[in-house]
Design goal:
2 strands; 266 residues; 11 helices; globular; mainly alpha; two-stranded antiparallel ribbon
């Protein structure tokens, strides 16, 4: 109950702050228009010169798949690694560890709260615009879509936090985690289907996407494809597996890190 009250307070405070100071919303809106919007215009032309179908995939499905990636990215969960690195390098981690809160939960909820307002506003507005311009594929109108999309979305949040928390915790052992972050972030970006829809991946790359935690962290981009109706339980299972595995890794790293703080920081 204490953790839930803390989460509620963090989210409420940060959402109010974002409403009062909408600079982050403007920046995120410009970012999704600049990247996703231009990319969709380019793909619209590519699909047009290929008679509207590439590798059995139509433009509307590819567009929604890429949109889900860019919409999810506005949550900014990747930023948890930088926040944790700053806590560790500045010594602020010692203060937070002395508080009656769980540091990992505190930092996770804080990161979610930082991007939640922008995510909600941009996602609702962009969904309406995309539905009006591109249309909504049939796969998104079946009853199975919303509940399974929600499961994939929750799995994406948990897995993304685990992946980037591991990167952040590495700051206990290496001062600057930026090179590691760059490698991991690019792997998530590529395998998540940001600039190339996953349906257009070569077979080997598609298998890597399915079975690696980097691709699994963005299975929401798979939900719009026709195959989702038959494979969703398998993909959700893969997400759960990686959440459990990486969750244990985060926990073990954090325990070792706390020991280092206790020894070196007193």
């Amino acid at each position: 109950m204490k953790e839930l009250r803390l989460a509620k307070k963090i989210l409420k405070t940060l959402i109010k702050d974002r409403i009062q100071y909408p600079g982050r919303l403007f920046a995120d809106t410009f970012g999704i228009i600049a990247r996703c919007g231009i990319l969709l215009v380019l793909y619209a032309y590519v699909f047009k010169i290929n008679n509207g179908v590439i590798n059995g995939t139509t433009f509307d499905i590819a567009a929604w798949s890429m949109f889900f990636y860019f919409s999810f990215s506005t949550l900014g969960l990747r930023g948890i690694s930088r926040s944790m690195m700053q806590d560790i390098n500045s010594g602020h981690i010692e203060v937070l560890l002395s508080k009656p809160i769980t540091y990992l939960l505190y930092r996770s909820w804080w990161q979610i709260g930082m991007g939640l307002y922008s995510f909600i506003v941009i996602s609702i507005f962009s969904t309406l615009v995309l539905a009006a311009i591109v249309g909504m594929p049939q796969t998104m109108t079946v009853g199975l879509f919303l509940p399974t999309f929600f499961l994939a979305f929750i799995g994406a949040i948990l897995l993304s936090l685990c992946i980037y928390a591991i990167v952040g915790l590495l700051a206990f052992w290496i001062e600057d985690v930026a090179p590691v972050f760059w490698i991991i972030d690019k792997a998530v970006m590529i395998l998540g289907g940001s600039y190339l829809p996953v349906a257009l991946f070569p077979d080997l790359m598609y298998k890597i996407t399915l079975y690696s935690p980097f691709g699994a962290s963005l299975f929401i981009t798979h939900t719009v494809y026709e195959s989702w109706a038959t494979v969703w339980h398998k993909l959700i299972g893969i997400q759960v597996f990686w959440v459990l595995v990486l969750g244990v890794v985060v926990y073990m790293m954090f325990r070792q890190a706390v020991k280092r703080v206790s020894v070196n920081g007193g």
